Prior knowledge:
Layout: H1 2-10, H2 13-20, H3 24-38, E1 43-45, E2 50-52, H4 54-80, E3 86-92, H5 101-111, E4 115-121, H6 124-133, E5 138-144, E6 153-166, H7 180-183, E7 187-190, H8 196-207, E8 213-217, H9 221-229, E9 235-238, E10 249-252, E11 258-265, H10 272-280
Parallel strand pairs: 3-4, 3-5, 7-8
Antiparallel strand pairs: 1-2, 5-11, 6-9, 6-10, 6-11
Helix pairs in contact: 1-2, 1-4, 2-3
Amino acid sequence: MRYVVAVAETASFTRAAERCLVVQSALSHQVARLERELGGKLFERTSRRVRLTPAGEAFLPAARQCLVAAERAAAEVAAALGEVRGRLTVGVIPTVAAVDIPAALHEFRGRYPNVRIGLRVGASEELVEQVKQGVIEVACLGLPATAQPHGVGARELARDRLVAVVAPEHPLAGKPKVNLRRLSSEVFVDFPAGTAGRAQSDQAFSAAGVDRDVAFEVPAADLMVRLVRQGLGIAMLPSAYVPQLTGVITIPVTDAPARVEYLVWNRVGLSPAATAFLTVLDIQVEPVQE
């Protein structure tokens, strides 16, 4: 199962073998053996690509859950013996500001050196689904004030408002404040349509009764800011995040959309490592058992 997951995530038997620290022939043999046992092919192999078959798509989520369960079982035994071990994967949005994630992970590593730590950056809606599926244990999200995370444990961390971000030479750079109607005449750089990061701005402009032109859709805030610095458009980002930015000017927006940051976790089967990480963040939870 571990080999199948590695092949699926790398789209390559060669890279999967490197990740799993085995020779490719051994990995391929084990995958083929599993396919024979299951009675169907998990991968379509060509000279250029490797991709999951419909059977592989059906098998992958269950395989991941089994691997997580096996790791968690070993971690529970260690916890019963007084040691926190296993894995901890934390998800964050690109504009996380309410938690100093590197500092928190540094403190966690110092307390629990036997836990393997991973970090994934993604959109809020993707992170919620990964927490539900057990792919990651804990995640920091940013949602519009009109939305809340569902199906996971959650703690509100902070509320913030967006500010306009423009290049230093932009005509708005010297303004003390601006409103959405004035901003609507500008070209925008924003997150992809359908994401929570985009929704908060879309909802605000819609409520103000104005349209805007989003010419550049990018998933990463750092690339967004680089485009703004080149004068290709303006952006709207959380005010708590913008102190990290250089080479741009920020302007308060009088009718700016609000954003709420949450910390979320899997409510069922919380691992010892995840529980310990929440404790580092001063969050005490009682996991719900099925």
